[in-house]
Amino acid sequence: MAAPVPQPGRCVVLGILNVTPDSFSDGGRYVDREHAVAHGVAMRDAGADLVDVGGESTRPGAARIDAATEQERILPVVRDLVAEGVRVSVDTTRASVAEAAVEAGATVVNDVSGGLADPRMAAAVAALRVPWILMHWRGHSDRMQELASYEDVIGEVRHELVERVDAAVMAGVDPGRIILDPGIGFAKTAAHNWALLRRLDVLLALGFPVLVGASRKRFLGQLLAASDGTLRPPSGRDGATAAISAIAAEHGAWGVRVHDVESTMDAIAVAAAYRLGSSRARTGEQ
């Protein structure tokens, strides 16, 4: 099933649906199939262009699960969401899971490893003919923080993403279906994250759509920490996430991946209205 990169005429919104017991923000909240599907439908109704379904936590320090467990978690949810008319992306680093999810109706593969975790992924995505989100990645979650060492984070992330693009194209992936993600929070310190967000133009200059995934991440908790140094909890980071969404949209990001769709849709509407000098971006009215 061939599928194009979504282009709704504004910044694309991916709503995060973690069907895991151990994700950093909402682990365990949507492991129940009925609750997961209801939340996915609610995100679609709030404006999400895609609901990004993941069955394996990629939080720092997370242990891996096997492919069978990952498929058991996500496939029933993907099928039910597709039956409800929801457009679904699958968040996985495994070719076998991507293939099964696309067969179940997913139309985008979101691979946080950029194809490095599974040598079969590039060929699988090429055969599936669906968009592939290639994220900058240096290693699995159980050791990602020890890999957060750069002399020039912007230049090195750009170079390493170009290498992933080259490998994907060599494997037969259509360049027109490639989306890049700088990997905010993955083998990055807070300073690295802010530097990459400030210089999105460097990645946009490569000519590929760029996705920003900063939602509720630790560096926002650090930014908003209390006077005693206590980090703002994930549930209190949606305002900061929305601010980043607005900034990313204003600077040309193709999309943002978020937990709270409603506040992000508002932020993107504000960014579009600011850029256009009118409110027609969201309502169709002047």
Automatic annotation (TrEMBL):
Catalyzes the condensation of para-aminobenzoate (pABA) with 6-hydroxymethyl-7,8-dihydropterin diphosphate (DHPt-PP) to form 7,8-dihydropteroate (H2Pte), the immediate precursor of folate derivatives. The keyword Transferase applies. It is an enzyme of class 2 (transferase). SUPFAM superfamilies: Dihydropteroate synthetase-like. Keywords: Folate biosynthesis, Magnesium, Metal-binding, Transferase. This is Dihydropteroate synthase. It holds the Pfam family Pterin_bind. NCBIfam families: DHPS. One of its GO terms (biological process) is folic acid biosynthetic process. InterPro entries: DHP_synth-like, DHP_synth_dom, Dihydropteroate_synth-like_sf, Pterin-binding_dom. Residues 11-269 form the Pterin-binding domain. Its EC number is 2.5.1.15. Belongs to the DHPS family. Pathway: Cofactor biosynthesis; tetrahydrofolate biosynthesis; 7,8-dihydrofolate from 2-amino-4-hydroxy-6-hydroxymethyl-7,8-dihydropteridine diphosphate and 4-aminobenzoate: step 1/2. One of its GO terms (cellular component) is cytosol. It catalyses: (7,8-dihydropterin-6-yl)methyl diphosphate + 4-aminobenzoate = 7,8-dihydropteroate + diphosphate. GO terms for molecular function: dihydropteroate synthase activity; metal ion binding.
